[in-house]
Design a protein that fits this description.
Elements: H1 11-21, E1 29-30, E2 35-36, H2 40-47, H3 50-61, H4 63-86, E3 90-92, H5 93-101, H6 117-127, E4 130-135, E5 138-143, H7 148-185, H8 210-219, H9 274-290, E6 301-304, E7 317-322, H10 327-339, E8 348-353, E9 359-363, E10 367-369, E11 377-380, E12 389-396, E13 401-406, E14 415-420, E15 424-426
Antiparallel strand pairs: 1-2, 3-5, 4-5, 6-7, 6-10, 7-8, 8-9, 11-12, 11-15, 12-13, 13-14
Helix pairs in contact: 4-5
Length: 431
């Protein structure tokens, strides 16, 4: 019997596998056959083999097609590693290439249209696939992410920044209007104009007399504010203009000043009777009880003031259809109050646009109340008379408030003054 050949676990087979495990020299690699030879003799034998000759004949028929395919595979593998490993960070191109060739089955650069890594990096920059720049440490590359999801996120971020800028511009314009109004009323001091000091003649001597200044100060006595016509009277706390709180900011609680009931009234002021004081106390108590930080009510007309829902709904008027306050929802809200001290459904509602009829669910921070014309019905959505229907009697634009009268109920006919715009809204009446 003949001698049996060595098997898979013979020392020679194990040694061959160990030698072939790592990366070999690039000059002994055949890309067409995808075969790596360990030495020059093995590569020479492979070049003379029939399989290699057949691959060369296929390559000779259409060489451009094979080079383009190898170039595309090499570029895709390089960019995929750059995107996955480094993202959009700026990195040395050679670091990415070393990690790419660590994979044994990678496409070799000598089979592509680029002879060197530098030419490949320059080509990426010209094609707009990466941002490349050259420094003393070599060529650096930065991946440009053109994924639709990434572009969508960037657009959302830009839209949010634009909305914040719109809010800031609106606040700045309001401040400019207040400054202009104060300047018209004469409450803002005019800026002092400084002029250059010029001497009429250089021969004239400049002398200072400090004794005269001291005697002048002694002679001068401060005039009383009533006698001095140029004296500026400091406004009291009650006379200072109050800054109107925006819809997204909570108003600071007002500090109540307790009045002494036994203190005599000022001259010209009518003393309140006990009944008037009791009624005033009840009004304050009712205001404190019914004043909430949520105001959405079914059947009122509101205006959408956010662009997050799209330009289609921006500044469109809608009707509050539902505030999601079913029986089970009320039970759930009570459980949230007990365990989490947080309620969400009180601040959201389902609205229906008047012109298009679209239904959307929004937060109250994205809505504002609508003030109708005089004589129209409104709903009081916050304050002492929360929930009452009223008739709009008059509007005071300078004070940002209005006067209403109760339309129905036991308090019908009662006139309420100084009602803020945020506390009332138009009642929807289908035509």
């Amino acid at each position: 019997m003949g001698k049996e050949k060595g098997g898979f676990l013979t020392p020679k087979a194990i040694a061959n596998r160990i030698k072939a495990k790592g990366l070999q020299k690039l000059r002994w690699y055949c890309q067409m056959c995808q075969k790596q030879c360990r030495d020059e003799n093995g590569f020479k034998c492979h070049m003379m083999s029939e399989s290699h000759q057949r691959q060369l004949l296929l390559f000779a028929e259409n060489p451009d097609k094979y080079i383009d395919d190898f170039s595309k595979e090499f570029m895709d593998g390089y960019l995929e590693l750059l995107k996955r490993r480094f993202g959009t960070k700026r990195v040395n191109c050679n670091i990415v290439y070393q990690e790419y060739i660590a994979f044994r089955e990678h496409i070799h650069m000598n089979s592509t249209q680029w002879e060197t890594l530098t030419e490949f990096i320059k080509w990426l920059g010209r094609e707009g696939k990466c941002v490349v720049d050259y420094t003393e440490k070599g060529w650096f590359v930065q991946y440009i992410d053109r994924d639709p999801e990434t572009i969508k996120k960037q657009e959302q971020t830009k839209a949010k920044e634009k909305m914040d800028m719109d809010d800031e511009e609106r606040t700045a314009s309001l401040i400019q209007k207040q400054i202009k109004r104060a300047a018209e009323q004469g409450t803002v001091a005019k800026e002092v104009e400084y002029t250059e000091l010029k001497r009429e003649s250089e021969e004239e001597k400049v002398s200072l007399n400090f004794s005269g200044l001291v005697s002048k100060k002694k002679d001068e006595q401060p005039l009383k504010s009533s006698e001095n016509p140029l004296a500026v009277k400091k406004p009291t706390e009650a006379e200072k203009p109050k800054k109107k709180a925006s819809r997204w900011e909570k108003e600071e609680p007002k500090k109540e000043v307790k009045k002494d009931p036994f203190k005599p009234p000022k001259p010209g002021e009518k003393r309140k009777s006990a009944l008037d004081e009791i009624m005033e106390f009840e009004e304050k108590k009712k205001e404190k009880t019914n004043r909430k930080d949520y105001w959405l009510t079914e059947g009122i007309v509101v205006k959408i003031v956010t662009k997050k829902l799209g330009e289609k709904f921006y500044k469109k008027k809608a009707v509050v259809k539902s505030t999601s306050m079913s029986v089970w929802r009320i039970v759930w809200i009570l459980m949230e109050i007990c365990f989490f001290q947080e309620v969400q459904d009180l601040y959201r509602a389902v609205i229906k646009t008047i012109d298009s009829g679209d239904k959307i669910r929004v937060d109250q921070n994205h809505l504002e109340t609508v003030i109708p014309a005089q004589g129209k019905l409104v709903k009081i959505v916050n304050g002492a008379y929360r929930g009452y229907d009223a008739v709009l009697e008059s509007i005071e634009e300078k004070k940002f408030c209005c006067t209403v009268s109760i339309h129905s109920g036991p308090l019908r006919g009662r006139v309420i003054d100084n009602v803020q715009y945020e506390d009332i809204s138009k009642i929807y009446q289908p035509t």
